[in-house]
Structure formats: C-alpha cells, structure tokens
Design brief:
Elements lengths: L1 E5 L11 H11 L3 E3 L2 H9 L4 H10 L3 E2 L2 E5 L6 H21 L3 E5 L9 H20 L4 E5 L11 H11 L4 E6 H6 L4 H6 L5 E6 L1 E2 L12 E2 L8 H10 L6 E4 L4 H4 L3 H20 L1
Parallel strand pairs: 1-2, 1-11, 2-3, 4-5, 5-6, 6-7, 7-8, 8-11
Antiparallel strand pairs: 9-10
Helix pairs in contact: 4-5, 5-6
The chain binds zinc ion.
Zinc ion binds next to loops.
C-alpha cells in the first residue's frame, strides 16, 4: 500500500508551495502527491513549465496521484459547464506530461431548490461527456461526494448510483472517509459496490459532531476521531478495491499552525498505523 499526501493537509502552513510539498513527501517517505490545481499548481506554473514539474517529481521520486480539484461540475449554466470542460482538458494535458492519471471532481454546492432527479440527470450527462473527453487522454474522472447537506451529491450511495448510470470504465468514485461519515453514508452501500469503481481513497478522521454539521476544519489525524476506519477498509478489501494507495487529506487550522515537517511526520505515523493494521 502506497501513501500519498494531499496538499490541503499542510495548505496554510508557513512557506509552503508545490515544490516544498514534493520535498517533504520525499523526506518523510510518502510515495505520491495530489497537486492542488486551483492554487499550488497555478502558482508553480506561473514561474515554471509543466515539463519542469515532471522533472522535479522524477528527481525526487514522487508520483502524482490525482489532480485536486475540478470544482462543481453538475447543474451549471451552459457557460459554467464549458469552463469545466476546458479545465478538465487542461488537467488531462498536464496529466499526460507528468504521468498523473486521475482528475478528482466535486459536485456543486448550495444549489437553490434543485430536485434530486435534476441533480442526477445533470450529473450523469456531464460525467458521460467528461469521461469521454478524459478517455481521449487516457485519464480517469473520479467523483468525490461531499458529506455536507449543502452538497448536491453527498452520500456514497447517491454517487455510486450516478457513476453506475454513467457506466464508463474511466469514471469512478473518490471515497473520502470524512465525507463518507459526514452524511452517514451506509457501509451496506459500500459492501454492495464494485471496488474497481473506487479510484481514490482520502484518509482522515473527524471530531464527533452531529451528522450534517461537520466541516473540513473538524478533520483529525486518522485513528484519533470517531470514524470506524477499519470497517471502511475491511469492506473495501472485500469488494475488490485495488488496495494500491491512500491519500492523507486534512484541512485542520490547528495543523496549519504547526511546522510543516511535523505535519508530514505525524501524518505519516497515523496513516501507517491504519494501513498496517488493515493491510499488513
Ligand atoms: Zn477528499
């Protein structure tokens, strides 16, 4: 099992950049990284080329896991959706240059009075088109449901229903443990799923606030909160998930105030404990 770092985890720590994150991955034994496209990637590319990024990753032995994140793909205006396709195409081109195979996309948040059937209809039609576009670049699209009431797709069951209807080999799901817990996704839904459709797993934990009230800032080191991570991982094993990599993704202000070296070191210790106990 490989370990990846999501750049959100040390996002607001002092003096951080994409290069800094890659160096800390190397220093603390992470295998992969999820570059943040909306800030870290853009900052990097304002001063460097994508070819330089490919070289930098290679020089430090770190592979890119997934681009994070293509935001708010469904139920958009025509113009908004065209923008999503342009962004996707850009990420696919970057992916080919740096060997990144997956784009994570998240559903639209705070839609005003839109029915579930309209959400499903839009999500399915957008993902079919996005999946076909990504396939031309040999890339995958991975839908990350958001475990909050304001998100238009907020449980595993709902996201899985949508990607089943899309029915493309390169369109699957990002299972973020925090989001899985956030709206009380059912382990029985995960147990019924095809593990090959789980493309990315975000590892984290959370404080025990009531379902529907959890925010990203409530995330905790994996194994120190209230999520039954072992149950999630044991279920993933049973349904044929690739068991290839998990990515540590936290957004906790308290951790942002720490030295980034400590964030990487402590994060690795907690992640390794979960991995060891579930995957040997
Ligand atoms: Zn996530």
């Amino acid at each position: 099992m490989k370990l990846s770092m999501n750049e959100a985890t040390a996002l607001s720590c002092q003096a951080m950049s994409l290069e800094q994150d890659i160096l800390l991955c190397e220093k603390y034994g992470y295998d992969m990284i999820e570059p943040r496209t909306m800030d870290r990637m853009r900052d990097y590319l304002s001063e460097h080329s994508i070819e330089e990024l490919a070289e930098f990753l290679k020089a430090h032995g770190i592979k890119p896991l997934a681009f994070n994140t293509l935001c708010f793909f469904n139920n958009r205006s025509e113009e908004g959706y065209r923008g999503i396709l342009d962004e996707l195409k850009q990420m696919c081109k970057w992916g080919q240059k740096i060997g990144c195979k997956t784009v994570i996309t998240v559903p639209t948040v705070s839609l005003n009075k839109v029915t579930r059937s309209e959400i499903h209809k839009s999500a399915i039609s957008c993902l079919k088109e996005m999946g076909k576009l990504a396939a031309d670049y040999d890339m995958r699209v991975s839908v990350e449901f958001i475990g909050h009431p304001a998100a238009s797709i907020n449980t595993f069951g709902e996201a899985y229903e949508i990607i089943q209807a899309v029915d493309l080999d390169n369109v699957g799901i990002t299972l973020d443990c925090f989001h899985f817990h956030g709206m009380d996704s059912k382990i029985s839904d995960l147990a019924k799923a095809d593990g090959r459709k789980i493309f990315i797993v975000h590892l984290n934990d959370t404080e025990d606030f009531p379902i529907g009230s959890l925010l990203d800032e409530d995330r905790l080191w994996p194994g120190t909160g209230c999520i039954n991570l072992d149950e999630i991982f044991q279920t993933l094993k049973k349904i044929g998930w690739a068991q290839d990599v998990v990515s540590l993704e936290l957004f906790r202000p308290e951790y942002y105030r720490m030295n980034p070296n400590d964030v990487y070191r402590i994060g690795k210790e907690h992640a390794d404990a979960i991995i060891k106990r579930n995957f040997g």
